[in-house]
Amino acid sequence: MRTVGVEEELLLVDPETGEPQALSAAVLARAARDDPSEETFEKELHTQQLEFATAPQADMTQLGAEIVRCRKEAARVAGDIGATVVALATSPLPVSPSVSMNARYQWMVEEFGLPAQEQLVCGCHIHVSVESDDEGAAVLDRIRPWLSVLTALSTNSPFWQGKDSVYSSYRSRVWMRWPMAGPTELFGSADAYHRRIDDMVATGVLKDRGMVYYDARIAERYPTVEIRVSDVCLEASTATLLATLTRGLVETAAREWRAGTAPAAHPVELLRLAAWRAARSGLEEDLLHPLTMRPAPAGDVVRALLEHVGPALDDSGDTDPVHKAATDLLRDGNGARVQREILERTGSLGDVVRECVRRTQT
Q: Are 172 and 178 in contact (CB under 8 A)?
């Protein structure tokens, strides 16, 4: 059974006003004081963020419990210094981001300017184990058309600097300012993958290989592929659904590779349009169908994903919980819809954040 690990980036906010707070250093210091061996939490580019990483899990119920535990522990530590955490991919309220005191991050701001300075966005990165870089490259080639569906499921960033962006995932649009981000052409082999990374680093635009921000990549530090297209999800249950579907995609792709099934040859231009459509529409309107790259209702596209990974879900015992979670999400809406409904009901972006704080920790 492939193991899965989840990295989530959370916003640090004032529990009363909902405004982002530049307190990551204090939170990390508090966590280290409580437990010097604590390695769950890390700093991110901006001081208004806190990142955690789960331990790898083979059982998705256990992974879901680990996500909930990490979120609650983050809230506890932040609460000790008068803040709290919220799983929002952008701040609904206006914010002036501040960059962490870190040589790497300072270099990024000096090199890239405003796009780096303004990049206060929170994503969810999902690591799925692979047996080798050869398998990893084959997986990357075969999951490309389906990644936009994961974005649509996760959308949780409709607001930007106090205004409705009209997008369901504005985070993903902000993220695409990076010149090394986005979908990729086919690699064909692990050697070709690594040559392309080497060529990118050789341009001097990137500081190192860790700055290759592909939608999906072979991880540098772990024997995994890392899928990076999702907003941080408002509900832990949605993050668990995304992780389970991602494992299903990786397993399905690996089986196709071993069977000699060629990857779909969609050009990167269409993949970029599919990603844009998912960010714009979320689950509320049509998406581009991964098989045809033509518009189709979001529900039909999600069901196509479930069918595509069906055998892998059956073999891991995840079919029933995934189908229920997907059905519930299509019916009730994801974070983007929830945020807009709260604003429509209350008229207050502060209320949006406060309600989302509650949902983050349940």
A: no
What confidence category does residue 40 fall into, taking pLDDT thresholds of 50, 70 and 90? confident
Q: Domain holding 297: CATH number?
A: 3.30.590.20
What CA–CA distance (Å, rounded) separates 125 from 64?
15
Q: In which domain, by residue range, is 51 found? A: 4-360
Question: CA 190, CA 169: separation in Å to the nearest integer?
Answer: 31
The pLDDT of residue 38 is 73
As for how many domains the chain has, the answer is: 1
* 178-201 core/surface letters (b: 16 or more CB in 10 A; e: else): beeebbbebbeebeebeeebeebb
Residue 247: name the closest of 157, 324, 321 by CA: 321
Alpha carbon separation from 179 to 76, 170, 227, 348 (Å, rounded):
37, 17, 18, 35
Tell me the per-residue pLDDT of 187-223, one tens digit each, with 9 for 90 and over: 999 999 999 999 999 999 999 999 999 999 999 989 9
Query: What token pair was written down for 36?
Result: 């010097």
Structure tokens at 128: 């799925």
Retrieve residue 307's tokens: 């069918």
Phi and psi angles of residue 154, each rounded to the nearest 5 degrees, phi first = -90, -10
Phi first, then psi: give them for residue 99, nearest 5 degrees. Answer: -90, 140
